[in-house]
Amino acid sequence: MKMTVGIALVGCGTVGGATALLLQEQRDSIRFRTGVDLDLRYIVDKNLTYARKLGLSESILTESLEKALSDSKVSVVIELVGGTGFAKTLILQAFAAGKHVVTANKALLAYHGPELFAAAKKAEVALAFEASCGGGIPIVRAFYDGLTANTIDAVYGIVNGTCNHILSEMIQKDSTYDEALKGAQAAGFAEADPSLDVNGGDSAHKIAIMGAMAFGSPIPLDTIPVKGIANLEAEDVLFGGEMGYVVKLIASAVRGKKGVFVRVEPAFIPMDHPLAWVSGSFNAISVYGSAVGHTMYYGRGAGGTPTASAVVSDIISLGLGTYPVQFKSMDFWNPDKKPLKLQEPGDIHRRYYLKLRVLDRPGNLGRITTVLGENAISVSSILQHEIPEATDGEVLENTPPEAGVIEPTVPIVITTHRVKESQLLSAIEDIEALEDVYPGTTVLPILEEHPEFRYLNT
Amino acid sequence: MKMTVGIALVGCGTVGGATALLLQEQRDSIRFRTGVDLDLRYIVDKNLTYARKLGLSESILTESLEKALSDSKVSVVIELVGGTGFAKTLILQAFAAGKHVVTANKALLAYHGPELFAAAKKAEVALAFEASCGGGIPIVRAFYDGLTANTIDAVYGIVNGTCNHILSEMIQKDSTYDEALKGAQAAGFAEADPSLDVNGGDSAHKIAIMGAMAFGSPIPLDTIPVKGIANLEAEDVLFGGEMGYVVKLIASAVRGKKGVFVRVEPAFIPMDHPLAWVSGSFNAISVYGSAVGHTMYYGRGAGGTPTASAVVSDIISLGLGTYPVQFKSMDFWNPDKKPLKLQEPGDIHRRYYLKLRVLDRPGNLGRITTVLGENAISVSSILQHEIPEATDGEVLENTPPEAGVIEPTVPIVITTHRVKESQLLSAIEDIEALEDVYPGTTVLPILEEHPEFRYLNT
């Protein structure tokens, strides 16, 4: 059994270059192991400097997408251009030319997944996207193949290596966010413009994809509450650590009684939580299935060859003919389907970490806990530190009033038992209305490990 | 697209019962999500008491395998009988009747994988075995699908939940092996006869399967060095812990320069090693691929519904028609292939933990380190504890000679730098020949995290 797959690779940057090299280096090995012969016929890019620098064969380099698409021997087009403009056009062109497409483009899928799926199905070709979530981790396959016997209860992912690298540095080296970001940029773990990573946008793309696969319907990107890590204070990382928590940027999609909660947010998790040890630029995704319980998938979520690993495994599955069948059975991005019913974000119940900024005057702690009590919020722990340093303005004690702020605020850290988020936020409004409490309370959820086997009991 | 799969389930014990229930409960959901309708037509067992206790429909219960195999509507037979006798016969019968087979039977595959593969291929049916390694974790799929773009460098697994539960108890509660085993039996995590688990045999079955998939050729079970956990001393767990290590039963298959090392053994791993946090009855398997680097897969390695999750996902893949194609492309258990070339066990290079039992007399430490030096073994650390309690016989200091042993031995713990195992074992022979050194030195390997990207550099 030998099958030859003619390939056109479009976009020769970091991932494209690594994919081309992998296709070359592993061609014989892959043919030997799987029976599929991967014939890279074109590398298409407007700028071929990098392709030449890698020493890729001149005969397959071209600036002409048309040339590649019109070759009847090409059956798979790899889209590694990125972005949601030309990438989309070229994928639709490839479909129209009867080619399967492999992409690593999470943004494009998160925005236009249903439209692209419909176009592929109409053209009777397949769109493969293992590389779009979790880099080289075969997580997309877990949803469409490995865990098909399960109703999925929950997905929790650390899916942005840049953020995880920055947070790991903050945790391990007591760095501020700005210091850690600069370090990440110097080490090549963060882009010069890191905004899409650190603002949580990239994680939102991935949870939009994984959540749709897990729960069977499209999740419009604009319905996902997203909070990034740029405002995270070193002090909170420290205080959380003292209480046995580490902070991670968590993208989650969790089935609740009345719908699904999907969000991206920095959250505290206990140090013995299965995601707590995931450090540096690695990714990990926990999936809770009704039958299998907790499963977790770990690996490099970005980078040239890890992403190329996912891209090439998709091409092999297309060559074997297995993925086209699996793709046909995928219905979660059917544009005729109603988007997934998401719960009101405020309806979520969980524990929280609060850091209030309060003037250090007698009675304040009592007044605050009274407001919490009136709002039926049960306190788990309270921690008032001695003032490490002034936190509001250039504050010195015993300076005269005319010098500006004359009293420092102290951080009061409170952890709650499980509480409805809307109830908590309303209580914080009441607390911040107290005379000695400053605005800008830090609110971070505390995620306990998700319970297994919520639905099936055997 | 709707496909109906007629199923005969043979062997209704813990996993069989859970599989039957899962097939019932998830039938509509699976048909809706995948287009495959799973029609459980027969539950075959000589003793149907448990099936009746679960309330499974009387109309599908039968003692007659022949009845099930002769039904032309049955296309998939699930073998959950266990063992290597009747299970093998029934699988061959099922193949002869033109049925695909799904099995969770690691022992059978480890002993007879090549023969069963050949029989399936001859009958033009498929043998699916996701449930044979790592329970519900989709690890078998990682090898035949998710990581196909990679040459596999190494596999390290914690693949026996009973052992991992016992070791976790020893670590966390300072228990002895016997105490932890009894606790595991009481909690249902160990069988009344736990020998196949604790002697490493079950782990050997799984690494024989995963190693063959990873490296492309059969691994005869009797070529794998196997050491279990039954002789592990609480003292070593404690001493290792003091040095920052945890002990795990590790099944590994690692590509070396001249061949592959495959073994099962208790080993120390650093506390920040990616497998160190895997506690209790969970399993985890690390796979290092040439392109993807380190990936890891975690979940429940045993138990009714987790294993059923893997079994049912295999049936769905058979129903879709994807697995038969993937099975055809699998060649690692081709009986015409030479078994995998394994390196001489003694050729392996790594770090070691030694605990010597030595009479507490002046000069002994010097004599021991001299022997190590003469054998070109470089010492990383030495730890001589004050005697916690007598370790050899009922020893009391200052008792008269006629009372028996009059001097206690002290445990001297030495960790080495990387050394060839055969060289180390020969040095230990020399050391145990010294006058004051007792036999029975504890030797445990220290496994550092495997390096990523040994072969491909981009």
CATH-defined fold name of the largest domain in chain A: Dihydrodipicolinate Reductase, domain 2
Mean pLDDT of chain A: 93
Query: If you compute it from the alpha carbons, what radius of gyration of chain A comes out, rounded to the nearest whole angstrom?
Result: 25 Å
How is the main sheet of chain A built?
6 strands, parallel
Q: State the largest interface.
A: A-B, 65 and 65 residues
The CATH architecture of the largest domain in chain A can be named as: 2-Layer Sandwich
What is the CA-CA span between the terminal residues of chain A? 43 Å
CATH class of the largest domain in chain A: Alpha Beta
Q: Strand pairing plus helix content of chain A: what structural class?
A: alpha/beta
Instruction: Say how many strands of chain A there are.
Output: 16
Query: In what order do the strands lie side by side in the largest sheet of chain A?
Result: 3-2-1-4-5-6
- How many structural domains of chain A? 3
Low-pLDDT segments of chain A: none
Helix content of chain A: 25-40%
Beta-strand level of the residues of chain A, as a percent range?
A: 15-25%
Give the overall shape of chain A, derived from the CA principal axes. Answer: elongated
Quaternary state, please? homodimer
